[in-house]
């Protein structure tokens, strides 16, 4: 894949003690505004290597990031008066863009000599446009507008005009390739990109270098993605092999437990955070849209988006949550002695508390979910030996009542701590991912994509972009903790019991309490133990 992309683009392949959140939950959510001298790309992704090119963009409007760092939820046209805003088909309310035809919104995306689109608009439109048009089709239209309207294909075109428009088009392409690199796994996208960048690079050495840097950066990101997916496949294959052994010999297959590898809750919480941040980092923003994408009723292509409904990295992250929940339940149900089971429960309570203090809410909720699974919660004799005060506090923090009010308050505290962080550890915010997906799902379902006149409801997509952009900030944090590969290997590949195996182990540890449980116990013994 990487070699093919390199050939397609015509470039060479590059070589290969956190303060607890309890203390800040009641503080207000701070919002930051970058100074007028700062000129970051969307989410701060522009590299220093493009400084020479950036010097030619001094007149371009610069836009601060979204949620948590932006006080307005949409683009105010009075901020950036340009000729392009007179294009028919865009509608504003109180000077905010609220709707428009697809063609008008595409025109609004394309730079001109006198105009560069607001960067929040670029992200919002590139994120949401895939609900109405394939990314490769959008790229084709952008190339056409740049080539025809800006006369990039005309050898007689004014060189000064080309020099004015070229850096702006390169800026747009760079933001696209950096923020939505997965779009360019499509061969059609790469061809359009190469065609347009070839025209831009033909006029000036500076642009040739900028195109080369952009292309190599894109290839590097796609290469890393391919390597990650390959590694994930190997991890899943190893876990599947061990699960096969477990199904064949449920009692003999597991010879180790997590406590025998590491009995320090903080260290385990750190390793869980490693896994969380790595998997978060590979989720593309477009996956939140593609996970819920439905056919646009105004699109006549019956197969539209059938090949873009993939959200594999998002799905892999959800699978990880489920695995961790079942791993916790397995570790608790596996020991034969009540005292040992109680010790394991208390250990995971401490791990969950450390996750909370780190800001790792996803692992926290996975652990709580595992301990609340029926095969675990029914172990009354075991729980009677557990000091549950700390667990009660954690459950209160993740209480689903009032739409997870307590959790959302803690999340705001973690977000504030991240914004004002003095160390890399304080920057960590890992949301309860299933709830984030639920919020985006209901936003998508609760608001129409189009208005009655057929125009795209852009107010909806401002809000969608705000939610996704905050996630983009969280996922860019690098884990500051040292890796322990032995612990990581266990967390990722140790075999876990199925639901039936969990019930059987639970009944074997503490016998059935009623006839229904007795019948189920007998059935499970006859089906599972007969394999031994």
From TrEMBL:
Xref: PROSITE patterns: RASGEF, RASGEF_CAT, RASGEF_NTER
Pfam annotation, one family: RasGEF
Domain Ras-GEF: 264-512
Keywords associated with the record: Guanine-nucleotide releasing factor
Gene from which the chain derives: RASGEF1B
Domain N-terminal Ras-GEF positions: 93-223
Superkingdom of origin organism: Eukaryota
PANTHER family, alphabetized: GUANINE NUCLEOTIDE EXCHANGE FACTOR, RAS-GEF DOMAIN-CONTAINING FAMILY MEMBER 1B
Originating species: Oreochromis niloticus
Segments traversing the membrane: none
Molecular functions per Gene Ontology: guanyl-nucleotide exchange factor activity
GO cellular component, one term: plasma membrane
Full protein name: RasGEF domain family member 1B
BP GO annotations: Ras protein signal transduction
